[in-house]
What we know:
It comes from Bradyrhizobium stylosanthis. Keywords: Aminotransferase, Pyridoxal phosphate, Transferase. This protein is an alpha/beta fold. It folds into 2 domains: 3-43 and 285-383, Aspartate Aminotransferase, domain 1; 45-283, 3-Layer(aba) Sandwich (Aspartate Aminotransferase, domain 2), CATH 3.40.640.10. Helices cover 39% and strands 14% of the residues. It contains 14 helices and 13 strands. The chain has helices at residues 9-12, 18-28, 45-57, 69-83, 99-110, 127-133, 152-156, 181-193, 233-236, 251-262, 270-280, 284-307, 334-345, 373-382; strands at 32-33, 93-96, 116-121, 137-142, 163-169, 197-201, 227-232, 245-248, 312-313, 320-324, 347-348, 350-351, 364-368. Helix 5 (99-110) runs parallel beside helix 6 (127-133) and helix 5 (99-110) crosses helix 10 (251-262). It starts with 8 loop residues before the first helix and ends in a 10-residue tail after the last helix.
Amino acid sequence: MSKSSSLNKVFSDLPVTIFEAMSQAARDNAAINLGQGFPDDPGPEDIRRAAAEASLNGYNQYPSMMGLPELRQSIATHYGHWHGLKLDPMSEVMVTSGGTEALTSAILAVVQPGDEVVCFQPVYDSYLPIIRQAGGIPRLVRLEPPHWRLNEDMLKSVFNSKTKAVLFNNPLNPSAVVYPREDLELLARYCQEFDVIAICDEVWEHVTFDEHKHIPLITIPGMRDRTIKVGSAGKIFSLTGWKIGFVCAAPPLLRVAAKVHQFLTFTTAPNLQAAVAYGLGKSDDYFLSMRKDLTRSRDRLTKGLESLGFPVLKSQGTYFLTVDLSPLGLNESDTEFCWRIVKDYKVAAIPVSAFYEQDPVTSVVRFCFAKKDETLDTALERLSDAVRGRKR
């Protein structure tokens, strides 16, 4: 007799993620994958060599559950330099196997059955299943193009006496917004008024453009002891397969997150940790040059898409830019558009409606520009007739 009906409904009822579906469609159609967010560059050679050296000549047994001491110190020093955030590396910093595990550890540490958790749509796909597995109740806020900003009315509609946590992604994937101080101060005011813990997904913190500056919510007055900050070496160094995450929080919060981490992955590859410790100590020039290179790629794809008639929303950060199809008068949704271009034009993108569970925005498509020039140029060439060929 089948027991499938007794399996965990939180996970058994989940569909295949849009990222996997579109990546598989890209493979099936020999398409250029501008959907999933990974560069087609191998990453900084000196950091990769540091990992190889640590593997050959370093320690390869279980490292500390909390992370190599030298990496925890490097994380604290790095955030002190870039954000003025003072952290005790031994009691306020933990290393995890990627940002997703860091977020899972934070959510399971904070959320109990019946707790309400505020989440902003478009929302990263791992948040809601983990909240529900913890017994929490997501309270969803709908952000809208073109600005995707927070406001008083939306926060007033969801914060209440049952609110335990807020999950906040800044810079925001997929809409590529870097939130200004005024939005952060507004959110901080509600967190303090309702005694709420903020779990901050800040994995894109170094990938910001133009004059936009990332401000960690933990640095806003009143938020130091009620914020769990999550970072990712994979995003900082364009080494997405390494899966090295950071959790930074006051000791009472970090201690419980560490107990969750102990029973998820327990620890993380020591050679990669050693290499990330080296990388975080690189000069400012590295990080500024990385932003400059990505800005150039963003501008290249933006200019190309605009020349083809796509209305591009300016990307302030992340590896992504978005296109709002609504002014084009196309007789299709964002999802239909993405399936059409991967099959007919051999380019994969992601429909932003996939990041909504309720009342989705259905006109916005996300493209990844963290690619080589020739990759972007070939994609643009393939898309040259994608708008004209579908006008009503």
